[in-house]
Amino acid sequence: MISIKFLILSLCFLTPIGWAAQPVSDTNIKLYTMNCGTYDVSDMKDLSSNGEYDGQQLQMVNPCFLIRHPKGDLLWDTGHIDSLADSENGEVSGVWHAKLKVKLIDQLAQLGIKANNIEYLSLSHVHPDHAGNANKFVESTFIVNELEHKYMFSEPALTYFGAFYSALEQAKTILFKTEYDVFGDDSVVIKSMPGHTPGSSTLLIRLNKAGNVLLSGDLYIHARGRKLATMHKYNADKRLTIDSRKSFEALAIEEKARVIIQHEKQDFEQLPRFPKFLD
Ligand SMILES: [Zn+2]
Q: What DSSP assignment string belongs to 22-57?
């Protein structure tokens, strides 16, 4: 049994910038946001090394995203491990209290989807709050930054949280360096934004009515962290994270994208409640 304590290593931050309303794609794409758990943080001290948040509390969300494209489905992040939902009070590790109400697998079932129906799986990064259910998607094609792939199957990462995703070593895999156009029509593009982990990524989705949406992964963990440019302690490379944040903000402006900080509760609450979707 894997302890949720390793989940604390994978926090992220999300923040909004501008958003576009003009149609940017003729392709019928749907973006579903699933509730794949929460974190109640009893002390935000680990969310900055400068002490800004010491003693403060935070409620974080932990969504998974399903992108339905005429050419197939992409699952972006897999949330807390589904077995967490079997524990009514979740799991506490230090200042982190992880909970899950509805299993990812049961949410997909609401749309008539089984794990082995998902054509593509990608993770913003391999930490356990994002890779919790990754082993269930071994029949999907796994799209991953080559440095993240190297990192996730290195001995330290496998030892700490490999049990969540180790089956993916057998999955059909597409490696990329800087970006990957999932469906070949520029509508859903994975963008490398390293720093939090060696090959962390973000996701740009061009929707017909809702405009462009940019999912942050854990480049930021919460909206205030984006404003204050704070950085939590669980960063593989702070310098790289700063560079990636510059690239991310430039991309958000260039694409007039609605930025979703994946762990930011406000951003989550402004999205259509599953099984409603953006299109
Ligand atoms: Zn995270």
A: S----S--EEEEEEEEEEEES-GGGG-TTSTTTT--
Residue 190 belongs to domain with CATH number: 3.60.15.10
pLDDT tens digits for 102-156?
A: 999 999 999 999 999 999 999 999 999 999 999 999 999 999 999 999 999 999 9
Domain range spanning residue 43?
Answer: 4-278
Spatial contact of 40 and 99, defined as CB atoms under 8 Å apart: yes
Number of domains in the chain: 1
- Nearest CA-CA partner of 236 in 199, 207, 182: 199
pLDDT tens sequence across 106-117: 999 999 999 999
**92 strand-pairing partners:** 97
Q: How far is the CA of 23 from the centre of ligand 1 (A)?
A: 30
Q: Exposed e or buried b for every residue in 76-109, given b needs 16+ CB within 10 A? A: bbbbbbbebbeeeebbeeebbbbbbeebbeebbe
Ligand 1 centre and the CA of 159: distance in Å?
A: 19
CA of 37 to the centre of ligand 1 (A): 11
Would residue 213 be called left, alpha or beta, if left means φ above 0 and alpha means ψ between -120 and 50 degrees?
A: beta
